[in-house]
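Table S2 (continued). Query chain:
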Amino acid sequence: MSQNTAKKPDLFRLDGRVALVTGASRGLGASMATALAEAGAKVALAARSDLKTTAAHIRAQGGDCEAFPTDLADRKAPAHLVEAVAKHFGQIDILVNNAGIIRRANFLEFSEQDWDDVMDVNLRSVFVLSREFAKRVAERKARGHIVNIASMLSFQGGIRVPAYTAAKSALAGLTKAMANELAPLGINVNAIAPGYMATDNTTALRADAARNRAILDRIPAGRWGEADDLKGAVVFLASEASAYVHGITLPVDGGWLAR
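Corresponding output:
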């Protein structure tokens, strides 16, 4: 009796797929872009900062990537970025909305300009990027994956970051709203909520001895997260391994929310 020895597809592979990662110049974005390239995707790197280091790292490992310098604070930039990436690669299959900024001030002194700046980059650009991406995927009748980068402040209030908290809380809701409409079109929409990560955004927290100790004391894993801790989560949510996963916000937090 013959036995079927055909190799089963690896659900976590991204060969033949094109991924756009915003905020890819360093930190979490650079690590997630590298992870997607390691899984076989061609990667479009977008950021307002220099992308040479990320691109060189991916190419040194044999990956395929292209840099698209972009400032998402420009309201015309998100739609132009999707168009440019689609034109260069011929398609986009994965969108990772990672770009974000943070402004810190006491609530009573928090300026409207800081509020608007944070909302434009952290929320409005995600909406436009996702809409333009989803239109193109739907037109091709293809499979697509959107991965939004949320935050612990999608669940909690935080201190001295009202605009960032508002944007990240809204992003968790937007993830669910998009999933409800886009799942029938073959597009998975989910989010990752990084815990307290050692990035530029947390430099001030880590430099404050009291705040640093208080944060570490609450993390069961006993350490700040590293950018590479997001690699597995982003590949999972960008691949067919998560085909029946829609609208979740996945904490990658060392157990912070469990404490």
